[in-house]
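Comment thread on ticket #2218

A.B. wrote:
> Attaching the input chain for the structure job we discussed in standup.
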Amino acid sequence: MRGWLQKGTASFWPGLLVGLFILAAPRGLQPAGRVGRDVLVPCARNVSSELKRYEASHTSMGTEFTVVAYGQDVRLLAETVEEVFQEIDRIDKQMSNYKPESELSLINREAASRVVRVEPSLYALIQKSLQYSEDTGGAFDITVGPLMKAWGFFRGEGRVPSPGELHGVLAHVGYQHVKLDPANRTIHFDVPGIELDLGGIAKGYAVDRAVSILRENGVTAALVSSGMSSIYALGAPPDEEGWKIILRDPFDSTVPANVVYLRNFSMSTSGNYNKFFRLGGKTYSHIMDPHTGMPVENMLSTTVFVANATDSDALSKLYVLGAEGSRRYLATHPSIQALFYLPAGSEKQFKRVLLQSDSYNLPPDTLVKILR
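C.D. wrote:
> Ran it. Output below, let me know if you need it in another format.
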């Protein structure tokens, strides 16, 4: 059975200002403020005459990356942002499981039959991913590729696999099948059919690499976003305490749900409205429970706030654990906040649950302020 796969959409209109924010704008334009469909980002007010604003967007890794930066030299900002986009494209060429020539695709083809030596940065990301898999009890799992294909999310046409098919696919899912040798920087799969999918962490990693390049070039105020996934707020716009970000209502992308002020910190969102299909009157989201092989239910979105985008991207998959299951993770992992939007029973109503690590201490010169 097949259905139409959809991505989260919004209705946009030009020039509507609420307070200091551009809530929406026509598609195809890049006005100040728009960085994606999950979050709506403001313009700064009273911009210092010494600082100039530069914004650019670039499509890569299946999404639109946007950088908004402030500095004294627009040409330097433009050159730096171009360097950022080149690095993001490099990561895409290396880590995409959609590109047959990528290093990740080579690993997926050959690691079950032989030991494969891995480039250092990719090896480190796979190593970090497996640690997250271990720490979350498999809620985050980079071997979900076969599940995404079985449900039709890999190429864009949703379908519901039969129970027998799902049972067979689950035999090829599980981070425990990925064997690393740190001494030789190699990888091996202990059963055939395993496929790595870094879609749940690579965009956050790309955002962190972008921030590193901005810092190396002297940029101290910038916002980097990877479409509907991850954001890092570097410094703050002129005359502001932080970057002011609007989290959308999970049922209506034009309605604000929460306001966040962020400085030198990251946030990532996983939501059931990002990619889904409808079939037989039921909606199936792209976020899978690797244990059951089924799309996660009874969760609308999870937004995680943590010091870097690699971590926030991976940890937004606390979505799979839910609010109660995430309490156990947060009890032993410091300095994380997680905001859950849960169904409230009534149609198009939701409730908020904000959780925080038992040990919570922000680094100096950071800000995370979450408001209604």
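A.B. wrote:
> Thanks. Noting for the ticket: The radius of gyration is 20 Å.
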